Amino acid sequence: MQPIHATTVVGIIHNGEVVVGADGQATMGNTVAKSNVRKVRSLAGGKVIAGFAGSTADAFTLIERFEEKLNAYGGNLKRAAIELAKDWRTDRYLRKLEAMMIVAGKDELLVISGTGDVLEPDNQVAAIGSGAMFAQSAALALKKHAQHLSAEDMVRESLHIAADICIYTNHNLVVEKVKE
């Protein structure tokens, strides 16, 4: 069985708007296994958005755990992320999961990894997955030079640029906005 490569996820906070988006491609070896995987989820009634890169089953497990933590800590995004990262790093079962997550709330954007990292990205731009560096570069340039664009437009354009370059990224996008 060949490993599944999947995805580009990018999150941006710009002009009070918080948006996370991802492409829909999952690749096994040199074959596209699925072109419309939904890698972004709205949680807590739309007040939190989570996007994942990596193994889909692993990511679903992590999103469920994150949502449990979010509920347990009264919707406190940073605390829920830290508690998930602690569990992910120390729990025998979770430690084997291969994925990364971007989570976003009203004015927070965080990257969570299985090594216990909870990172607040510079410039309010986060990207994970196969095409992360392409999407992040595009997003940073758009934030700097195209400030008239909305965060949603920046996320979409960043993902399209990544899809034009990265063979593990396609143009089937799912984009979610944090609701007030």
TrEMBL record:
SUPFAM superfamilies: N-terminal nucleophile aminohydrolases (Ntn hydrolases) (SSF56235). Coiled coil: none annotated. This is ATP-dependent protease subunit HslV. Protease subunit of a proteasome-like degradation complex believed to be a general protein degrading machinery. It comes from Runella aurantiaca. Transmembrane segments: none annotated. It catalyses: ATP-dependent cleavage of peptide bonds with broad specificity. Keywords: Allosteric enzyme, Cytoplasm, Hydrolase, Metal-binding, Protease, Sodium, Threonine protease. GO terms for biological process: proteolysis involved in protein catabolic process. InterPro entries: ATP-dep_Prtase_HsIV_su (IPR022281), Ntn_hydrolases_N (IPR029055), Proteasome_sua/b (IPR001353), Proteasome_suB-type (IPR023333). Na(+) binds at A163, C166, T169. It is found in: Cytoplasm. Its EC number is 3.4.25.2. Belongs to the peptidase T1B family. HslV subfamily.
